[in-house]
């Protein structure tokens, strides 16, 4: 297949799948009466539900190669207001409150202020306008749902020394969504010409699209007042400039699109058209003529169907509406590699379909989100023909128990054994039980890493392809390996992540290291995390623990486990680390991959001496000495890292200070279907129904 052929084939199967969606019959059995039918699904790309989910942006930038179809949606349906190829890209926000920071003819000054004033709380926009034939740049902070929010932003920015140095704080003002209309015009060009007359005389003016007799028309709007007094001032200024003008306050309940030239990003010679819509109940509907709609704030990912914009809980809501079965193609492609066995893909398709339907309208205006909190959805980017075939082969199929949809939890890897719901979330599910899972495939292709000791005493990991085995051993019998390459990083755990597992040392060509053994690179099946220093770890624990751990962290232990070996209770210094649900121990311990782990305390060990006497370190007082290989001299052992070998041959690095390592298996909460396990079962010859019935006990698989 050539690169040119693939998009055509993808478009062909998308059309074929859509046709199938329209003709899939509902399952006729009486036992499935509680299963909802869903032709179109609404996916929240950005939304604030007013509870716990708050993934939002103040504006969204949309693009489509053949142009955007922009309109409105209400109870009467959708109506197109703008549908021209000349609109390949546009930015949208609700017409809320904002802070006008600066108006200047100096583009560099506007850029610098934009850079200094932007924070996590305040987004900065630069709009381009013309006054008396000259370009000016208006720098705003926004968009805010209330005047109080805008006022708080004004105070934050005024307190920002770098930003304040570039503006006259006294001239900063709150702008709002209140406008006067100065009349309607047959074309955008005519409206722009009239608006420019007001702008040249110093009165802010805009072109807005409104609806009259069911058709879009262009109006000239004046001002952007934050309150009634400000609106009265706009009226007075307009009357003074144009005494005979027919002025009318804008209907606050009517839908509109207020247009501005946005140069916040990109080339100022080609501004992005910015449309601000009425936050009071308006829904903006954006379609595309072919392909998909790219969303810049989602890393440019493209989405099929249409995009709906509205304001919910004071934030911009961005909803992607598309055919349900097409959505599933993207979800399955994001959740599983398309190269995996077809039966595993089919199992994932049924699970994803059931899960989405089980959510209902979770977010009030959307069934689901695009995040892993629900199920991952990346739009067209993750579509694939093999995945589409799996979705088509299982079209309409869902899992039920007693005629009702189950909640088919799934995740990456069970680590060999799925969880019991009580040990994970503290509540039973009749169709979920701890069961074996063939998850080992996640590590079969992973490279091995040597755990090595450096001359400096540092203990860490180096990937096996960066060393060669010399065939020699140190006096304690450990093999010596020789470094290959220059500037090779040593890491605390056997995987590469410069943020969470940065280099703790560096070695170069020819250096000799002592190998303490080899392990697979940390993966979804087996992993190592840490070591974590005691003072840092106790702070992390106290972020989520109901009762904080006080004092120095001397001991951290797994005190209880459930049927699958997952941690159900941790103790720190003998005190239970209390969390709402056992699975939350993952977030308590630096987002550990799973709760199926053991803890290694690197600063604690027991010495067996003569006559069976034992000594526990660090509990026992006194000085400990280590005898070297030559037996010539003893040195104090408590001030450096030591390598010790237990009776069974297990090797440990013992540190002078208390540190903690997590050694575990599995990735995710562990309830329901393991995706790697589904692959393993498919490779053993299981079909998708048998795979699902392995993970979800006593369920029925049938059509919607």
Automatic annotation (TrEMBL):
Keywords: Signal. Coiled coil: none annotated. It holds the Pfam family SpoIID. One of its GO terms (cellular component) is outer membrane-bounded periplasmic space. GO terms for biological process: sporulation resulting in formation of a cellular spore. GO terms for molecular function: peptidoglycan binding. Residues 91-170 form the SPOR domain. It comes from the Bacteria. Residues 1-28 form the signal peptide. InterPro entries: Bact_Sporulation_Assoc (IPR051922), SpoIID/LytB (IPR013486), SpoIID/LytB_N (IPR013693), SPOR-like_dom (IPR007730). PANTHER family: AMIDASE ENHANCER (PTHR30032:SF4), N-ACETYLMURAMOYL-L-ALANINE AMIDASE-RELATED (PTHR30032). NCBIfam families: SpoIID_LytB. This is SpoIID/LytB domain-containing protein.
């Amino acid at each position: 297949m050539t690169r040119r052929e693939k998009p055509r084939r993808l478009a062909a199967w998308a059309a074929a799948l859509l046709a199938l969606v329209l003709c899939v019959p509902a399952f006729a059995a009486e036992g499935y009466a509680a299963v909802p039918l869903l032709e179109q699904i609404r996916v929240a790309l950005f939304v604030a539900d007013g509870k716990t989910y708050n993934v939002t942006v103040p504006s969204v930038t949309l693009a489509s190669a053949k142009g955007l179809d922009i309109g409105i949606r209400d109870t009467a349906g959708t109506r197109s207001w703008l549908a021209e190829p000349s609109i390949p890209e546009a930015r949208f926000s609700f017409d809320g409150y904002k802070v006008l920071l600066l108006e200047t003819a100096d583009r560099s000054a506007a850029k610098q202020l934009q850079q200094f004033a932007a924070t996590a709380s305040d987004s900065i926009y630069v709009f381009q306008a013309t006054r008396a034939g000259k370009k000016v740049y208006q720098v705003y902070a926004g968009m805010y749902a209330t005047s109080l929010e805008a006022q708080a932003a004004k105070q934050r920015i005024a307190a920002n020394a770098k930003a304040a140095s570039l503006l006259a704080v006294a001239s900063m003002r709150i702008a709002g969504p209140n406008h006067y209309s100065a009349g309607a015009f047959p074309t955008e060009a005519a409206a722009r010409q009239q608006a420019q007359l007001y702008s040249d005389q110093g009165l802010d003016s805009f072109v807005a699209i409104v609806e009259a007799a069911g058709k879009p028309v262009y109006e000239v709007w004046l001002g952007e007042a934050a309150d009634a007094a400000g609106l009265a001032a706009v009226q007075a200024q307009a009357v003074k400039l144009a005494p005979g003008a027919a002025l009318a306050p804008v209907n606050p309940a009517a839908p509109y699109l207020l247009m501005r030239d946005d140069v916040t990003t990109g080339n100022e010679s080609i501004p992005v058209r910015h449309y601000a819509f009425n936050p009071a109940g308006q829904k903006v509907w954006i379609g595309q003529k072919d392909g998909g709609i790219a969303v810049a704030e989602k890393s440019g990912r493209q989405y099929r169907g249409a995009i709906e914009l509205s304001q919910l809980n004071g934030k911009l809501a961005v909803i992607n509406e598309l055919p349900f079965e097409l959505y599933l193609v993207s979800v399955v492609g994001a959740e599983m590699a398309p190269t995996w066995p077809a039966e595993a893909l089919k199992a994932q398709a049924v699970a994803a379909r059931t899960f989405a339907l089980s959510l209902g309208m979770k977010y009030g205006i959307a069934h689901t989100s695009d995040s892993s909190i629900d199920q991952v959805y990346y739009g067209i980017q993750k579509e694939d023909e093999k995945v589409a075939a799996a979705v088509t082969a299982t079209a309409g199929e869902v899992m039920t128990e007693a005629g009702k949809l189950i909640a088919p939890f799934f995740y990456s890897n069970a680590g060999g054994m799925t969880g019991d719901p009580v040990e994970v979330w503290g509540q039973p599910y009749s169709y979920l039980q701890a069961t074996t899972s063939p998850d080992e495939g996640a590590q079969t292709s992973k490279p091995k890493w040597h755990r090595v000791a450096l001359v400096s005493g540092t203990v860490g990991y180096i990937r096996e392809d960066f060393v060669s085995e010399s065939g020699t051993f140190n006096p304690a019998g450990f093999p010596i390996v020789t470094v290959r390459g220059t500037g090779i990083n040593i890491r605390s755990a056997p995987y590469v992540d410069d943020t969470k597992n940065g280099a703790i040392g560096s070695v170069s060509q020819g250096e000799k290291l002592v190998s303490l053994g080899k392990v697979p690179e940390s993966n979804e099946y087996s992993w190592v995390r840490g070591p974590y220093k005691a003072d840092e770890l106790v702070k992390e624990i106290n972020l989520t623990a109901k009762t904080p751990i006080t004092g120095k962290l001397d001991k951290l232990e797994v005190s209880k486990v459930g049927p699958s070996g997952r941690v159900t209770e941790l103790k720190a210094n003998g005190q239970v680390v209390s969390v709402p649900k056992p699975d939350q121990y993952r977030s308590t311990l630096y987002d550990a991959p799973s709760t199926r782990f053991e803890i290694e305390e690197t600063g604690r060990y027991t010495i067996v001496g003569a006559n069976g006497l034992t000594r526990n370190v660090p509990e026992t007082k006194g000085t400990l000495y280590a005898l070297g290989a030559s037996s010539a001299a003893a040195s104090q052992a408590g001030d450096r890292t030591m390598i010790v070998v237990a009776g069974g041959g297990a090797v440990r690095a013992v540190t002078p200070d208390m540190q903690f390592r997590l050694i575990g298996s599995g990735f995710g909460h562990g309830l329901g279907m393991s995706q790697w396990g589904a692959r393993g079962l498919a490779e053993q010859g299981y079909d998708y129904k048998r795979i699902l019935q392995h993970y979800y006990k006593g369920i029925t698989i049938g059509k919607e």
